[in-house]
Amino acid sequence: MVVVLPGDEIRDAAPSMAQTKLGPGVLPTPARTEDGAVSLTAFRAGALGHVEKAERSRAGAAPPVHAWYVDGLQRRYVPVAGDRVIGQVTNRGMESYTVTLFAAHSATLPVLAFEGATRRNRPNLEIGALVYARVVRAEAWTEPEISCVDAVTGKAEGLGELKSTEPDTAMVWPVACSLAQSLLRPQHQLLKHVAAHFSFEAAVGVNGLVWVRTASPEHAVAMGRVLAAADDALRDTAPHTPDTASPDTLHRRVAVRGDLPSADIARLVRLA
């Protein structure tokens, strides 16, 4: 894994644009190589990441997709197709909802973009409701479009309205976008360590929001205290893996940024 600066070019990123998935921090380079391979340009400083995987398709096997992204310290969210985000309904229309992603632009959520939704049976979201959604489209000159269904299965797959009923308590905590992205990685153990102290449900949006539902307000406040400490640890210039040896590669260092030792988590939880 390498570190890139704005303007650095990533040559031979993928055989074709159809096999390229753009993540945060990269854009296509207008010039192509002689063999037609895709070239990308970084517009953000950070660690360059690459994931190669087979795309799911109803037709069966498909050519591998090459996903490229730049992972760096980030607090301002820029929508990218495929991101899972937490938004709040700010306006209701006949065909769609207006949802703020707490970014530069609001997003559009069609009323039919829910599992089982039809023109006669459509969801009824109130202004102020929170939704966990997937960014479907994020063009440069238009509002982003989000959806609460999986593109392949047509099921919710955990997406939809985020709500809580008494006696449960639900809260939303803001964190750095970089921390939110790290929390979604399987290597990150922060939420697993908190779950050892009390049960909770959580939804992590890469736009820098974490929704938490717990059985008591004290546990919700404790989760906020843990996330605030993790946010502070994110700025540590020498990240570490708690309870284990320090990672020896940049990729592992980035993956566990903002993690906390088990003893610190236990202390923060006990303060409740």
Summarize the structure.
Residues 172-217 form the K Homology domain. The protein is of the alpha+beta class and 272 residues long.
What does this protein structure show overall?
This protein has 272 residues and is α+β, with helices and mostly antiparallel strands. It has 3 domains: 3-71, OB fold (Dihydrolipoamide Acetyltransferase, E2P), CATH 2.40.50; 83-161, OB fold (Dihydrolipoamide Acetyltransferase, E2P); 169-271, K Homology domain, type 1 (Ribosomal Protein S8, Chain: A, domain 1), CATH 3.30.1370.10. It is built from 5 helices and 16 strands. It has helices spanning 177-183, 190-195, 217-234, 250-255, 262-270, and strands at residues 3-4, 9-14, 20-22, 26-28, 38-42, 46-54, 64-71, 84-92, 96-100, 106-110, 130-137, 145-147, 160-162, 169-174, 200-205, 209-214. Strands 8, 9, 10, 11, 12 and 13 form a 6-stranded antiparallel beta sheet that branches. A hairpin with a 5-residue loop joins strand 9 and strand 10. Helix 3 (217-234) runs antiparallel to helix 5 (262-270). The chain starts with a strand and ends with a helix.
Number of helices: 5
Largest sheet: 6 strands, antiparallel
The overall number of domains is: 3
Specify the CATH class of the largest domain: Alpha Beta
| Weakly predicted, low-confidence segments | 237-248
CATH superfamily of the largest domain: K Homology domain, type 1
Helicity range of the residues? 10-25%
The helix-strand sequence is EEEEEEEEEEEEEEHHEEHHH
- The name of the CATH topology of the largest domain is Ribosomal Protein S8, Chain: A, domain 1
Overall outline: globular
* Content-based structural category: alpha+beta
What's the total count of β strands? 16
Strand percentage lies at 25-35%
Quote the distance from N terminus to C terminus. 40 Å
Mean of residue pLDDT? 83
Which second-level CATH architecture of the largest domain applies? 2-Layer Sandwich
Rg over alpha carbons:
20 Å
